[in-house]
Design goal:
This protein has 15 helices and 24 strands. The chain is α+β, with helices and mostly antiparallel strands and 600 residues long.
Length: 600
């Protein structure tokens, strides 16, 4: 228990502490009042001073950030970088990647990416080595020696040697294989001197022979055990082809429940064993569509990086930013092939009249894009072309006289008749906007002189069958010519033989004079001599009028965003766009500029 003295002591201490706390509180209030509250009122008088400092600090921050950014732009620049997936769309269907069979746009595109040939065309349509490192030819022009690049590999890691080259061309030559390339390789002996060297021995000189070695090479170690008659349908062609091209097979995906909605997607991955180094894209995808409409819809939905094969740029894309349009001239020719074996068209006068009744200038202008006019079986860029031997010029009055001379007289409804039969035949072509316009204009022009042409437009796959069996009277179609004037496959009578797997003489033109000229022209090496040798062919072609030359087509390639490394000038064929596909890039990043050294 606390006594009274203790209680008094604690009370005094409490009073002392309370007075101390009160004193501290009073002092704190005085300081706050003196140093804070009384000075708040003075802020009004120093507001300009404070605002100036805030403005100065802000300005310094902006200048600093601007300087950092400018220094970054000085030492860095936006550059293309590897990576990403590239998706390319086209109309058609995938059926066969094997290069000894691939012919449609989709098949040829897949085949070109997966397989390499001995030679290829660069972006300026020059012939350059692909698998081949070099080649030589003897003085007679019949013995070619091709050397392969060292250490070539198939995509499965197996060595690629001369034995694969020999196997490929012997397979093409085998009639049981039924390759559309067979006619170009008959009579040629292919042998392997060693693992890196191949001999090609021709029965006679052929100046354009190196151009025939651009087809893809197939692997002997995977196909040699298969009968030639089974090569077209072997699973290798569609399930997992193995080539030596820049991209290797990954997978194929089919969607759509009906033919009208059917779409295919072929995915390809970079080939680590590619002789030119691993491609810069992470994946290359080809998507095939049943119609132009499906293709455009997919592109508009940003599912594609690029689309190829349209006849014109869709209106909704013309003014859009970041859309790149490439109009690439092709060393090809669109013609009207008049089948000479047809009952009506076998008459030279009728064919000449159709040529005279065709206003090619109006047709070319109607296409909506600039085209190069053609006037015969050769392009004006080919050295054997002769302007003096252009096809008959537009003259509808003369066309009428020719038809009168041939016995075709104007009958009911303005259509000519002969022996009670009307002057009518079908005109086939592919069902796309460009060929639709061309065929309708042809039919209209011909009708003005009394000719009834029935236009038949087919989708690509059906038209290929029509062409294969020559089941047409006349045909609007494009043919690839290239840089050499050797047009033997299209006009020599031997190429109209029904026994051939691929009859490229679409007009079924037969002329002894033309045959001899075509044979002589392709067996010389001197361009000036070749030009002389080809003259009789050009004269015979002009007089016989087996076809009507219209225009030199283009490849329309539309991309969303830039494709770095893609800078074409002209192509021999559409698949030549892949000549440097291993260098394509679609992504950009800001990277440090390369350092440059100055000479002091």
């Amino acid at each position: 228990m606390f006594n009274r003295t203790t209680r008094l002591r604690w009370r005094r201490r409490f009073r002392i502490k309370r007075r101390q706390v009160e004193g501290i509180s009073t002092v704190a209030e005085e300081h706050l009042d003196r140093h804070l509250f009384k000075r708040i009122g003075r802020l009004y008088f120093v507001r300009r001073f404070i605002f100036t400092w805030i403005l100065l600090l802000t300005l310094l921050a902006v200048v600093l950030l601007s300087q950092i950014r400018r220094l970054g732009n000085h030492y860095q620049t936006l550059q293309p970088v590897p990576g990403g997936t590239f998706v390319e769309g086209m109309v058609g269907s995938f059926t066969n990647a094997n290069p000894i069979y691939a012919s449609s746009n989709v098949d040829s595109s897949v085949s070109k990416l997966v397989f390499s040939g001995l030679f290829k065309y660069d972006q300026k349509h020059n012939l350059v080595g692909d698998l081949a490192e070099s080649w030589t030819v003897d003085e007679r022009g019949v013995h070619y020696v091709v050397k392969l690049r060292p250490r070539l590999l198939w995509q499965d890691g197996y060595p690629l040697t001369a034995a694969d080259i020999v196997f490929t061309y012997k397979s093409i030559q085998n009639p049981d294989a039924k390759s559309p390339l067979a006619s170009s390789w008959q009579g040629i002996t292919v042998t392997a001197k060693d693992a890196q060297t191949i001999y090609f021995d021709l029965p006679s000189a052929l100046s354009s022979f190196p151009l025939s070695m651009t087809n893809g090479i197939v692997p002997k170690h995977l196909l040699s055990g298969i009968a030639a008659s089974q090569l077209r349908s072997v699973s290798f062609n569609t399930i997992k082809p193995v080539g030596s091209g820049p991209y290797r097979w990954d997978a194929v995906e089919v969607s759509g429940e009906t033919p009208e909605t059917r779409m295919q997607q072929i995915a390809l991955l970079p080939n680590d064993n590619y002789y030119g180094g691993k491609p810069l894209l992470n994946k290359f995808v080809i998507r095939s569509f049943n119609s132009d409409k499906q293709l455009q819809t997919s592109f508009n939905n940003q599912e594609l990086n690029a689309m190829v094969g349209l006849s014109s740029t869709p209106k909704e894309l013309v003014s859009k930013a970041n859309i790149y349009e490439y109009n690439i001239p092709l060393l090809s020719e669109v013609m009207v092939f008049l089948k000479n074996s047809n009952e009506i068209l076998r008459d030279t006068k009728v064919r000449q009249a159709l040529t005279l009744a065709t206003d090619t200038i109006s047709i070319d202008k109607s296409l909506g894009y600039p085209v190069l006019a053609v006037k015969g079986p050769m392009l004006s860029s080919q050295f054997a072309y002769d302007k003096a031997l252009d096809q008959l010029a537009y003259d509808p009055l003369l066309a009428g006289r020719y038809l009168d001379e041939a016995g075709w007289k104007i009958g009911a409804k303005g259509i000519r008749q002969k022996d009670g039969k009307p002057l009518t035949f079908n005109l086939y072509s592919q069902n796309n906007p460009e060929y639709t316009k061309v065929t309708n204009m042809l039919a209209s022009q011909w009708k003005s002189v009394g000719v009834d042409a029935q236009v038949v437009l087919q989708p690509d796959n059906e038209l290929q069958a029509t062409i294969s069996y020559h089941s047409y009277d006349s045909l609007v179609f494009g043919i690839s010519l290239g840089i050499d004037p050797d047009v033997f496959p299209y006009w020599h009578s031997s190429q109209a033989d029904p026994r051939l797997q691929n009859r490229l003489n679409f007009s079924e033109y037969k002329s002894g004079v033309a045959d001899k000229s075509l044979e002589a022209g392709r067996t010389r090496s001197d361009p000036s001599i070749r030009k002389v040798k080809y003259r009789p062919f050009l004269e015979a072609w002009r007089n016989d009028a087996p076809a009507i030359a219209l225009y030199q087509p283009r490849l329309l390639y539309i991309s969303r965003g830039r494709i770095f490394g893609f800078d074409p000038t002209s192509y021999n064929s559409g698949t030549d766009r892949y000549s440097n596909v291993d260098k394509w890039m679609v992504h950009e990043a800001r990277l440090q500029k390369p350092r440059t050294t100055k000479n002091l």
